[in-house]
What we know:
The protein contains 6 helices and 2 strands, in the order αααααββα. A two-stranded antiparallel ribbon has the order 1-2. The protein is rod-shaped and about 95 Å long.
Amino acid sequence: MQYEQLRPWERQENESEKAFSAFKAYLEMEDRNVTELARRLSKTRQLLVGWKQKYNWQERCIAWDKSLQEIEYKTAVKERKKMAKRHIAIAMSMQAKAVEALKKIDVSKLNANEIIRLFDTSVKIERLSRGEATFINSSKNDDSNKKDVADILTTVLEKAWDEKN
Length: 165
């Protein structure tokens, strides 16, 4: 066995099979505790503490836990990417259906509120798609003055609509 290339949680050079077996049991414990391990394995606490120190169980457990966290993180990233692709596919399908429905709408039959809502929504979607904010902050120090870009444009559209009618 090549001991130089061992990962910390593998059997170490000169580590007996019994000591390694005890380490694996310790490693798999939810709340790692030598006294509880001694009870479970019917070994003396003193023997296990000696093995723990001699074979650096604490450092090996930390390396194991870190390795598991890295695997979990990589898995989570892969799952998020798959989720994003799935959501994009669903969104694109829904958008295609919405575009087809929009093509069938007779705009002359829409009332002012429906036109304004359509306009408001389209502006927000376009701005978000382009990575732009959907609000304008009229004072850099006061978040209460945030104004939605679409709301501002909607107000202008409402005024134009009222003047036309």
